[in-house]
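WARN no homologs supplied; continuing
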Amino acid sequence: MNTLQASPFVPGIATGVLRRHGPSSSGDILLLPYDALNLLTTRPAGLIIVGGAPLAHPMIRLYSYGIPTVVISAAQSAQLYEGSTITLDGYSGRISGSDTSGGSPLPDMLTPTAGQPVYTADGVPIELRASVADRQGVANAVAKGATAIGMVRSEFLTPQNGAAPDEPYYTAALQQLCECAGALPVTVRTLDLAPDKHPAWLGEIPAMLGPLGLRGARLYTEETVRPIFEAELQALARLAAHYDLRLLLPYLTRPEEYAPLHETIHRTFHHPLAQGVMIETPAAALALPEWLRLVDFVVIGCNDLMQCLFAADRDIPAVAGLLDPYSPALYRFLNFMAASIRCELHRVQLGGLLPQVPGVLPLLIGLGYRNFSVEPLLTPCLANIVANTTTAAAERLANKACEAGCGAEVRKLLGLPQDASWGGAAG
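OK structure emitted
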C-alpha cells in the first residue's frame, strides 16, 4: 500500500492486521469512526480514528490506554483495506505496509525516577507530573516516573451503581489513590462537570450547555451539585492530615469568583492545604498576576483555553481544524502569560493535551514553562524529549514560532509533515 500521512496522536509504533469497527484481538490495528469510540471494548495494538475532535474528552482518554493512535480523514479511510497488514507510527502519523524499514525508529526511552524532576541537556529541571482519573492511573504514574500527581480528575470517581458520591465514598476512593501514590504529592481537582461529563446522578440543568454555560465551579451553587462538592471537601479535609494533598478548583474566570469558594474551604479544612485554580479562559489568563496573589498555584488548562481562544467547541469535529496546536497566535498568547508572571512561573503547571502534541514540548520549555501535567504512560517518551532539549535552543525555537505567520510555518520549523494537521485529518 502507499504510505498515508495521518495526524499523529498517541505516540508509539504498532504493526497488525487492519480491522474495521468490530471486535479486534490484541494484535490488530482497529479503525474506528470518532462517533464509534464507545465500541472500543478491547485493547488493540493500534488505533486509527476517522475524523473526530482531538481535544474532546473521548479522544483525550485514549492517551490513558497507551495505544499508538493516529487520526485520518474519511477520504483516507477509503484507501485502507480490511485484513491488510499495516504499520502505524504514532510519532510521525504515517500508516504504511508491514515493512517498517522506512518508519520512525523507536527512541531510547529514559526511565525517570518517581518523585524527581527530569533534566534538559543543559541541566534545567522539568517536572513531568501526571493527570489521572483512577487508581490505575496513579499506579502508572509511579511506575513511569512521574514527579507528582499533578491532577486527579475527580469527576470520574463515581460509585458503580451510578449513585451520587458522598463523603464516605470520596474518603475511601481518594485514600486509595493517595496510598497508591506513596510519597508523591497529590493534587485533587474538585468535581469538574461539563456537558460531556454528565454523571447519572445529575439531573438536567438547562444552562449546562456548551463550553460557555454552567460548568466546573460555576455549578457549585446548584442545588444538586453543592452537596456533592461539599462532600468532596469534607473527604479531602479528613485526608489532608495524613497525605500530601493539594486542592484545585476548576473553571474560574474572574478572581471575584474565588472568595465564596475560599470561605467554604476555610470553614471545612482544619489543616493547611495548598489551593490552586484552573486557568481555562482568556479572561482568567489575563488576570494571572491577580490569581497568584490569591492562591498558591495555578494550572493552565490548555484544552479549554484553546477552545475559548479559537472560538471552536472542542467536542465538534467540524471545527477541529481551528484548534490548531501549532498556531503562532497560541504561542504568542502563552508567551504573554509567561511574561506577565515571569518570576512566578514555578507556581504554574501547564496541563491538557498541548504538552503531549508532537514537537510542542520544547516550544513550551522555550517559553519558560517548567511544570507539566501529562498522561502517565507518556512520561518516558516526554522525558526523552526533555533530555535532548537545551533551553537556549528551545528559546530560539519558541521565538521563531511566535514570529511565524501560520501553523504551517510552525510545523515546518518543527520538521513535521505539512498534511499532518488536525484540520486535514478531520475533513
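Confidence is low (pLDDT under 50) at residues 100-106, 423-427.
OK
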